[in-house]
Design goal:
The chain has about 120 residues and is mostly beta strands. About 0% of the residues lie in helices and about 50% in strands. The strands form two sheets. Strands 2, 4, 5, 6, 9, 10 and 11 form a seven-stranded mixed β-sheet that branches. The protein has a four-stranded antiparallel β-sheet with strand order 1-3-8-7, with no helix packed on it. About 30% of the residues are buried.
């Protein structure tokens, strides 16, 4: 019933910007249980930005100062604005929603029940 669809990925040169969008249909869970993860080939899935249960925002050290997560609750949409992109940002980016485990103070993929198919982001030098 719940479907998350990412859009806005693509290829950009270093220093460029992209905005990812995640549209959640059939989702009635908390908007404080939504976020973005990414996974590069051969690496573990890592948290990028997400809302915590109290409404505060977590950013990874890499994302801090460059990425901004936002949401439109009426449209069940969460956005990720990515500026000053670097080649190390190249990865598949996944939208996640639906908390099934508590917030532990750091991102854990297993905390989320619902996942999108991913949006590829490629940053060239």
């Amino acid at each position: 019933q719940v479907q998350l669809v990412e859009s806005g990925g693509g290829s950009v040169q270093a220093g460029g910007s992209l905005r990812l969008s995640c549209a959640a249909s059939g989702y009635t869970g908390s908007s404080n249980c939504m976020g973005w993860f990414r996974q590069a080939p051969g690496k573990k899935r890592e948290g990028v930005a997400e809302y915590t249960p109290d409404g505060t925002i977590y950013y990874s050290d890499s994302a801090q100062g460059r990425f901004t997560i936002s949401r439109d609750n009426a449209k069940n949409t969460v956005l990720l604005q990515m500026n000053s992109l670097k080649p190390e940002d190249t990865a598949m980016y996944y939208c996640a929603a639906g908390c099934i485990r508590p917030w532990l103070g750091y991102p854990v993929p297993e905390r989320f029940l619902y996942w999108g198919q991913g949006a590829q982001v490629t940053v060239s030098s």
